[in-house]
Amino acid sequence: MTTLDRRAALLLMTGAAAAPGLALGQGRAFSFESVKARAKALAGRAYVTPPPPPPQVQAMDYDAAQAVGFYREKIPLWGDDWGIELFPLSRGVPKTVTIHLVENGVARPLGYDPSMFSMRADSPLRSLPPSAGFAGFRAMSRDDRGEWLVFHGASYFRSPAPYGQYGLSARAIAADTYAVQPEEFPDWREVWLEKDAQGRLVIHALMESAGIVGAYRFVNERDGLALTQTVEAAVFFRRAFDQMGMAPLTSMFWYGEDRAQASPDWRPEIHDSDGLAIWTGAGERIWRPLSNPSRVVTSVFSDENPKGFGLVQRDRDFDDYHDDQARYERRPSVWVEPVGAWGKGSVRLVEIPTRSETDDNIVAFWTPDAPVTAGSAIDLTYRLHWTDDAPPAPDLARVVATRTGRPGQPGKAAVVEGRRVAIEFRGGELGALRKAIDIEADVTARNGKIQGLSHYPAAQHEAETDTLWRVTFDVAPDGAEPADVRVVLRQKGRALSETWTALVFPAPAGN
């Protein structure tokens, strides 16, 4: 056992929440109900702009921030197999988050102390006052497997679970994302950290912006490398909003196997997620492949009491990326599981044009039908599963690839209008039905015409253990707007696959 492990074990045995020598303020009684009450009270008052960060923070550019490390012996809170490290302020993340430690129902604020960090002798962080606070925190594994949860910047948080590779992010709320009004980005203002009786990390957080105040509680359950967060949210609004996004997920899709034009990069595919999965309240499983459109596109999937939705990285084959640094095949998926009845609303997908893998251009969230007005509030509970895919439906085949190209049949005269679409389904009962003659491809298009429909089991390779079915067709949009297409494999009316749905735009000029 290392010196650090012995010190941490001693703290746990003595019941101490904080490492020796930490600058802790006066304790106050604490509960999540007190955070919600404070959020509600703040929402009834005019917004007060937080004070600017100390001037030293402006000197903390990227290189200076990268040169700062955290001394692990200064970890302020240990769980059974985790500890909390803190981030100092920097030019990139200059807003202060007040960190409190909670033990036995008492919360104590943690003051900034330069001795927590390794830094150069001339680092601007050395002269920050104790009131400067922190930029965020991360949860680290005791066995040095690395970090497994990070809260750092605005109201974002993310995890590398279950494959140890960061990708998409979650955040508290998405307010008017590409809606009528400009988007509003709340920040975490205060965070309360505690270890509960089961040894889990519990995070309470107060979020605020000019029009929004929210109280959040995260209970973090780890199962091996997987992570499930149970989230309670109570959000209060100072003003009206056009589109409120709850349980939002933010990701990146530059291009995948469906490339209408020449690839902009040598790597075959570049994306953190390749599809939106939805499990509707009626039980339908929907798969929407992500795209990098030429203009901002918002897709609305109306529903009542959904069973879940998520942004998924389904393609796990390294050969489809060939990137041994970014490791896109290891990027996490996140599944949002509602707890209780969410009522009527819609899952919304916003796709934003990008020319780079550095831009997050995909957002998915739940929007309640009830309008958000000044003085209104939303209470939601849900679970976030950081996992490999959406929950399985063993009897349904999954969509594993979507490809498009010029319309028409190979070897025949080219068709001028429309796009050729090829969808690949794998799994479920398709293997047993490989020779069935009563399987149908149910294909419909709103604002478009379907021609040349074909479906068949693809040739099975020696290494394959299940059957791949391919559905191909041409779709010609009626005018300049895209065709809204839905595809599902059926046998005597019974669904054999997920429902594939996508917007098929008119062919680009020259294609």
Description:
- With 511 residues, the protein is mainly β.
- It is built from 3 helices and 34 strands.
- The protein has helices at 3-14, 32-43, 62-66, and strands at 28-29, 69-70, 82-87, 98-103, 106-109, 117-118, 136-141, 147-152, 156-158, 169-171, 173-175, 187-195, 201-208, 212-223, 226-237, 244-251, 253-255, 270-271, 275-279, 285-289, 297-304, 308-312, 333-339, 344-351, 362-368, 377-387, 398-405, 419-426, 439-446, 448-457, 468-477, 483-491, 494-495, 499-504.
- The strands form 5 sheets. It has a 16-stranded mixed beta sheet that branches.
Give short descriptive properties of this protein.
single chain, 511 residues, mainly beta, 10-stranded antiparallel sheet, 3 helices, disordered N terminus
In short:
With 511 residues, this protein is mainly β. The longest helix is centred in the N-terminal third of the chain and has 12 residues, at 3-14. It has helices at residues 3-14, 32-43, 62-66, and strands spanning 28-29, 69-70, 82-87, 98-103, 106-109, 117-118, 136-141, 147-152, 156-158, 169-171, 173-175, 187-195, 201-208, 212-223, 226-237, 244-251, 253-255, 270-271, 275-279, 285-289, 297-304, 308-312, 333-339, 344-351, 362-368, 377-387, 398-405, 419-426, 439-446, 448-457, 468-477, 483-491, 494-495, 499-504.
